[in-house]
Write a structure and sequence with these properties.
The structure is a single chain. The longest helix is centred in the middle third of the chain and has 35 residues. The chain has 3 domains: 110 residues, Alpha-Beta Plaits; 96 residues, Chitinase A, domain 3 (Roll), CATH 3.10.50; 182 residues, Trigger factor, C-terminal domain (Trigger factor, domain 2), CATH 1.10.3120.10. Strands 6, 7, 8, 9 and 10 form a 5-stranded antiparallel β-sheet that branches. A 4-stranded antiparallel β-sheet has the order 1-2-4-3. 48% of the residues lie in helices and 20% in strands. The mean pLDDT is 91. It is extended. By secondary structure, it is an alpha+beta fold.
Length: 441
Amino acid sequence: MNVKIEDLSSVKKKLSFEVPAERVDSEIQKAYKKIAKTANVKGFRAGKVPQPILEKHYGPQMEEQVLGRLINDSYFKALVEHRIPAISDPEIIENSPLERGKIFSYEAQVEVKPEVEVKDYVGIPLQKEKFEPEAKVIDERIEEMRAARAQIEVTSRKKARSGDSVVIDFEGFVDGVPFEGGAAEGHVLELGSGSFIPGFEEQLEGMKRDDEKDVEVTFPENYGNKDLAGKPALFKVKLHEIKEKVLPALDDDFARGFGLETFAELRQKLDEDYQTQERNRVEGDLRERLVTALIERNPVEVPEAMLAGQLDYMLENVRNRMKSQGMTMEMLGMNETSFKAMYRETGVKQVQGSLLLEALARQENLKVEDSEIDGKLEEIARMANAPLEAVKKHYAGEDARRGLISQIAEEKVVQFLLEKAKIEEVDKDQLAAQNSNDDKE
């Protein structure tokens, strides 16, 4: 068998094959011999059909079998002998007719993992956000938690104001005619929530119990009901009751509602979580800047097969995350096609980064030790609050373990690069301004 290999690009090769006539004849004969055992031709017993009759009735079946065997055997043998790192199924470009006594030839194209040599990776200049904890963030978080525990109670105040929940009856009219779905009794509405037509809630502020009022508004142009969109409307409203949020005291009882003994412990826990989250964000941003700089210095062509796999992985992650929140992509007006189109550039960058980090691990001989795997498993168990044995069992499978080792290796390479980089700490505002300028360029 003769094989000619041609590089079409850094990620695609063309393989040209010539299979000897002797092999073609042998495979054709084998195919007909196998077909003859079960061939069903009127006037002949099974296994006794003459060769010319077999060829007349079963030629296409023979050809399908022989082509499949010739191509598969020669193709995979070439991959092994020539150490071709194929990452996609072959695409048969053209092939010659299958005929006895003649050479069978065909051409196939296949995507391959690019050979990457990373250069210019020592001393990469990077900007890192200087993290400065802000006490107001904790105050805001506590107020959010406090608001979530608020009780709605009837207020002694006479007039309604923003933030109050009012109990109302209302009926809506367009051109003096009531419209479907425009009336309700005993409806509870939080003023300032923006849940009604723009301008409606503001006009209820200042109303007293048993007050009645005509509220004039205009439906938005993009309103869901096309019959009402853009039209002026009048609502007759009667207010029955005014309720307000009563916030709990910020004391030890409040903290115990979140599983802690004292309010001081709650504040400390929130501060620790906030700082951990923000430091992780800063480190993640620095890592992204590092990989981006590495890609700019080492452009890598990405095979479509690897990109497709990465986009599938990203899509599955998003779907699982949304499912846990009781949502679907369709709720956001997206589907698989639009998602992959929107995140194609991100997928390309992620594949490029993985290829470069993997290559750099080889160049610098950065290997993953068993102790590092054990440490990572313990970290995963701790973060997931799961039994260590259960985590070990999950990562015992070949694919899961390979993925874990790849993740640890990438982390080692990133740490290696950061130790070699020239990192400048800058204020958050300065970094945001720089990001804005980069986006404009």
